[in-house]
UniProtKB/TrEMBL annotation, chains A, B, C, D:
Name the UniProt record assigns to this protein: Soluble hydrogenase 42 kDa subunit
EC number(s) reported in the record: 1.12.-.-
Single annotated GO MF: alanine-glyoxylate transaminase activity
Record-stated family: Belongs to the class-V pyridoxal-phosphate-dependent aminotransferase family.
InterPro entries documented for this protein: Aminotrans_V_dom, PyrdxlP-dep_Trfase, PyrdxlP-dep_Trfase_major, PyrdxlP-dep_Trfase_small, SP_NH2Trfase/AEP_transaminase
UniProt domain Aminotransferase class V: residue ranges: 43-321
Post-translational modification N6-(pyridoxal phosphate)lysine, affected residues: K202
Keywords: Oxidoreductase, Pyridoxal phosphate
Coiled coil: none
Any one Pfam family match given in the protein's UniProt record, by short name: Aminotran_5
Length: 396, 396, 396, 396
């Protein structure tokens, strides 16, 4: 396994935009025998667990937990509020809105997609135009990806809410926070989000395999009016269970629940506001280095405007198809795994940095230092002083 | 937590009919950082993993892996082969056929249910009658629960196949092996099963959170003719993926895959035939003790005929509502957790023993010895020599 | 690894007289990165840890922690209070007193050994005789093994103290509680023990590798008068450190300390009095079964008098060299490992049961049930009703 | 625990000069039940384990394993070859030779110490002078610390051997490789080392608690001539055991053995030559950064001559007592723990970096990036380009 010419023998650092680095406390909590699933500790911990999930999402409303990945939560959310034949609006900045929209189509839902390409955030005027054109309110929901993991664009959810309100458009505002929750500021209730979808393996720092749908009273009302919702996706018993097994529509994901419990303890011990501040600072350090490197005209940040950059992931391009060699170098020679490019025109040139979740100052410097090393080894032109610029940001 | 009058301080033994006891090798394999989900070890291990799953199911056909519990796999299986408005036949011995049938109804499928009650296996004549009455083949599938976890009845799948063949009935034979796979003999191809559903937390000895649908060419043909299948449940990309993420319809259940890998290694190191033999022997030891206790006329085995008893779970009744006190005693005083009664008329009287998966001779004797102790403490009439009878079976 | 004819695939149960079964909480606590050894959590936890160790030993005096096994603690204890050429009295019931005495000799100490053989406790008259004969108090210490792990004899420490007091003999009373601490009642201060030696892998439920010497003011005074004590064994800085590293004479046993912390939490959550009561009850259950089996005249308990039987270990003999086949059977066929015979005339006939530490009712029944099974398989004559007798004891 | 103004929430990085970072494979291997200590897997793995230890030490001679820390191994080594009243020569570069010499004195051995201070390697002329003055060979051994963990000086063992040979001095050459084994090149047999002492928690990447003494035929001969060696320290039965327990002079350190097994597998999979090369390259990267920073005249490397710098640890000084504030900053703000200064005149100014064992490129860049950040935050003058200089070394 070890490349004998490499300096990789040591801790592997998975710096992809999810799964993120799992805290030791989470893995420890999951290394245990199966608990009883009818009574006892596991059953008793659920009220606090769901309360603490809601605290992260900044909502006093409901949450349904799914044994599923983020795609499952997408389908769950759609299944509870959309009847085949209904329409959703899907403003896409990057790849994942397309994916969610395709899922809607597979459920028989019509999709009106506005594609802003892989590098631009929503253009609110074009969205306004689409909503205004929908005078008879065929559009029942807007699929709003908060942070697109492929492009690292962060879209402006409050602005979208304001637009819907201004236009008196009743469409549900459905947010995908899979890449942002626990990283970028997100305020479900204050921002007027009706349905929010997320998963456990990014900002929530738990091994992949669990996802969540949060929903408010407007969404509940739509659910109540549905002719049929599949038993597995139905969020009703999951959010208001009479029996423990209804939380999960069957057998509980026992070990994931213990892992999530430990992760939520870490988040709330730090404080969610501080979690956001930390991610913001670490992201600015990443940007500072990347912007310096970019002076060499080989490296480019996918998102030009800092205001639209995610605090959890950064998409980059190295001209001449040098993204893949760079990733290969850091993995084989330094023990550092970077994310592949996704959904871009030239995927060999692209790569992504995950900087989400269980992340601190030395990790970010190790990530950036690894890239500097690889660029040096591959003789990629770059501005100097990148690492010192990042350190200066961290030093505040 | 510890009851100060108790003898419970020690290893907890969870002897419920799932989740089963997880081997240390499985937990060790899961205690690791998240792997890359785009390349490397995890990606490379999939071909062998799916091959080894098929070996356990005794099929050369397809398998789709779901991040979901058994209920999710139920819905997945139904979603791939049944159009709303079609009909299934559901012969029910115990509770779980009802659950699967309700799921079908929630998908708009019509259900023809034959209820054999909580203590009797299928009556093949009544099933034959129902199939014969279906001259125009409205019945598209038969929902056949191999082992019902609530009643501990094991139904005769080969006999059902023979019946369908005799009657030339084209309905798909869909088997639920959630409680039987890796415990009771099951031969998917030889028995002519078209679709089989199972989950990881019983005979497969992996923490709950992953499930599986196996299907053959007949089932694939039905899938191909479906007007629409939801993206998450669609088994097609999961069984024939072009890309790794299609195995899981999105992010992989990273840690569960490592756990399952370790569990399959244990199964195949032992040999699946030997796994079945072991379960058979251990089950007979349990029955030997229970039949002795039953001489005291307080304890009753739910299933009278040994030929219809599961090798993985045993449902019992203690007259006078003494099932719950017995369970309470073993848990609080001995560190032994028994399964609650499910789906029975008098649930307080009922309880169940799980004897599945990672299970050996001393564990079964500890389980039975715990029950003997509790019956003594609660002064429940019982035949003598139960434990020695069990030991005699184990001694062969 | 798995014997294909066996029923062993399942949890291995190590029922030898140490190492004992390690609680999950202990293993979890040890699965962590190395901590800083100069400041922080590890340093700060020491005062409570040593206080909680003293609570288990029932002493308000000193404790020194050694990275060493029990033999190391033996040597440590001897090294702090005995000058080459001095004499100790060693009343031996079983093998381990011999071992300790040999260690003393290797340090240049003279040993006066009284051998009571492998099956008898101390004869206080013979000890009295030896002490009376020592009019000029050449005997500086008595090496008193509380429970001998090979013979399972428990000796009467308070009686020995009374004897020394009666005779006004100033010899230090040095107790070996390696096999008894946290199992059998032991009261260091009330019983007038001057030095006590123990280790972590039995009643303290922590992986082998750490041991302890407790000592009171009389022992300290003797240490103060020593011409020389080796730096590693010197208990002075270990018990009264100015710096953290002095606790361990160098680098701390980081992970063992976390494990021990978790184990002490379990003990004190249960309460040491209850721990003793639990061991007593479980031991009586073991005896009840063994005494029944003994009616068949093949099995013999090594210690006839219940008052002199350890609550942590039971030494047995199966005539005709059948101890080894029995152990072999339980290990290969049932997943149950019994202890070998040690220090007996016919070691093939002998075997031992560990019933110490993290142990509860179903475990004891599994242990005994495994032996019943093996005796049945090997057609060893035995009284009937052994398991029911044990269950009756547990049922109270 | 979390400082709310910090960026520390993430993986802690313990970059002290031991304990080093433990590989996941080692922790996984240790998270298991206690094995049997009389037969089976643990017993069977010993021959390969000791062979693989010898491969790391580059010797065909003997090894004794001790449950003890490095100080214990020091005492063990001394105890096997030195009689009270004999003399050793102790050339000291840094603190640890003093410690070993004190241990010798506590055993009654006379010490002739040559102190080269905290920043200079051995002066071979002064050592030669001392040996020449010893015409009657009172000096029985030379205590030679290969790498001093406090000063980060690496001494020239082959030169010392050559000197002894040139002078025909029969003193045993006893090397302390606690901080160097598995990091800096060490060739026991080729270099003519007679006794070598090391421990498991640095280059051997195993939790602290086990240590080792290697010895050759000359040392064995001296041992054979000893009037008395304590039973615990006697290396004879440990190196040539008739029974498994003799390897450890009693109960085996069960879990440490599994951990060490996993660590040795990592070392030999990489290849010991490559391990040394990796450490050399990573050390040069550290030096490159430190030398750049040193241009600011606040930071100083303790060892001026690269030829005498350890590849495993680097001792540094920040004028004005700023070592402690720097360490405090990296720990509280970045999750990075640096080593304290040891044995220096102004300990508040000093600090040390561990770069040993399970260590790769991104970790070193994270370590250096953390220091750059802290120096920026604390406004410590420093040369620029330090991190890029380190990256250039790594890039080769």
């Amino acid at each position: 396994m070890t490349d004998n010419m490499s300096l990789a023998q040591g801790r592997n650092y998975l710096a992809i935009p999810g799964p993120s680095v799992i805290p030791d406390a989470v893995l420890q909590a999951m290394h245990r025998p199966s608990p009883n699933i009818y009574a006892g500790e596991l059953v008793e911990m659920m009220p606090d667990l769901t309360a603490d999930l809601r605290r992260v999402a900044r909502t006093r409303h409901e949450v349904a937990i799914y044994i599923a990945n983020g795609h499952g939560a997408w389908e769950a959310a759609l299944s509870n509020v959309l009847v085949p034949g209904e329409t959703v609006l899907a403003p896409a900045s990057g790849r994942f809105t397309h994916g969610w929209a395709e899922m809607a189509e597979r459920l028989g839902v019509k999709v009106e997609l506005i594609d802003f390409g892989p590098s631009d955030p929503w253009d609110m005027d074009r969205i306004a135009q689409a909503l205004r054109a929908d005078a008879d309110h065929r559009i029942k929901a807007v699929l709003a990806v908060h942070v697109d993991t492929s492009s690292s664009i962060r879209n402006d959810i409050p602005a979208l809410r304001a637009l819907l309100d201004d236009l008196n458009h009743p469409a549900l505002l459905m947010a995908d926070c899979i890449a942002s929750l626990g990283c970028d500021r997100f305020e479900m209730d204050d921002w007027g989000v009706d349905v929010m979808v997320t998963a456990c393996q990014k900002g929530l720092m738990t091994p992949a395999g669990m996802s969540f749908v949060f929903f408010n009273d407007r969404a509940k009302a739509k659910r109540a009016a549905m002719p049929r919702v599949s038993a597995y996706w139905d969020w009703l018993p999951r959010s208001e269970p009479d029996w423990f097994y209804q939380y999960f529509g069957g057998t509980a994901p026992t070990h994931h629940l213990y892992g999530l419990r430990a992760a939520l303890d870490l988040i709330h011990a730090e404080g969610i506001e501080h979690v956001w501040t930390r991610h913001a600072r670490l992201a600015r350090a990443v940007w500072a280095a990347c912007e310096k490197w970019a002076e060499g005209r080989a490296l480019h940040l996918n998102v030009g405007d800092r205001a639209h950059r995610s605090h959890a992931v950064t998409a980059l391009r190295l001209t001449g198809g040098r993204g893949t060699p760079l990733r290969s170098y850091t993995e084989r020679h330094l023990g550092l795994t970077l994310g592949i490019g996704l959904g871009m025109a030239d995927e060999e040139s692209c790569f992504r940095l995950g900087h989400m979740g269980h992340l601190n100052g030395h990790m970010v410097m190790g990530l950036l230092g690894g890239i500097e090393t690889a660029m040096a080894a591959l003789e990629i032109p770059r501005g100097s002083g990148a690492l010192e610029a990042a350190a200066a940001v961290l030093a505040g």
